[in-house]
Amino acid sequence: VQDNVFDAVIKVDDSNYDYSGVDGYDSTTGTVTKPITVTVIKAIPTVTEPTATAITYGNLLSESVLRDHTWSWVNDTVVPTVQNNGFDAVKTVTDYDNYDYSKLNGYTYDETTHKLTRKVAVSVNKAIPTVTVTANPVSQSAGKSISVTATSKNPMNNTLADIPPITYSYKIGGTAIDFTNTFTIPKGTPI
């Protein structure tokens, strides 16, 4: 906040008035100049809200690109879930002498670091897991056992451990029978 003195220059019509006794009158230009004091305060800036590109579950937040490159993620190493409340993005402002960023709705402004923070919506698509099932041996006669292994992984991030455990069952004649990794082919199973 600062007081500034400006000159107001007023063009006058001296055909009916005698301005020669008025302070600031210039008969050459036909004007009266008067100083005015104006208190200049910081304006509330207009900030374009940052938006983010969609990602797939398993991607790091860093893979969601903020469309305004003056913004960056506060923590870009998190793995956003499909259901989320958005994530904090930050930008450093440089014109803080002329603008009051603390008055912006929906933003947090740190007057010490001059950082502006806003929660940004991130659309996260469901991942399609990679499911692999193998049998050993791949051919076997009735009455013998087969070992089955199965894996399900997030193709975006193999380190995620939130895929549900795999349960095994087999069907013969419409009835499902649960088993753990190994099952015996019932005798009389048709070839």
Query: How many strands, what sense, and barrel or not for the largest sheet?
Result: 4 strands, antiparallel
Low-pLDDT regions: none
Major sheet: arrangement of strands = 5-6-8-7
Q: Note the beta-strand portion.
A: 35-45%
Instruction: Give the beta-strand count.
Output: 14
The helix-and-strand class reads: mainly beta
User: Secondary-structure element sequence?
Assistant: EEEEEEEEEEEEEE
Radius of gyration: 37 Å
The number of helical segments is 0
Assign a percent range to the helix content. under 10%
Report, as a whole number of angstroms, the end-to-end distance.
90 Å
Mean pLDDT: 92
Shape: rod-shaped
Short descriptors:
single chain; mainly beta; 4-stranded antiparallel beta sheet; 3-stranded antiparallel beta sheet; 14 strands
Q: Would you mind describing this structure in some detail?
A:
It contains no helices and 14 strands. By secondary structure, the protein is mainly beta. The strands form 5 sheets. Strands 5-6-8-7 form a 4-stranded antiparallel sheet, with no helix packed on it. The chain has a 3-stranded antiparallel sheet with strand order 1-3-2, with no helix packed on it. The chain has a 3-stranded antiparallel sheet with strand order 10-11-14, with no helix packed on it. A hairpin with a 2-residue loop joins β12 and β13 (175-179). The mean pLDDT is 92.
SSE topology sketch:
Elements: E1 2-11, E2 25-26, E3 31-40, E4 55-56, E5 72-73, E6 87-92, E7 108-110, E8 115-120, E9 124-125, E10 130-136, E11 145-153, E12 168-172, E13 175-179, E14 182-184
Parallel strand pairs: 4-9
Antiparallel strand pairs: 1-3, 2-3, 5-6, 6-8, 7-8, 10-11, 11-14, 12-13
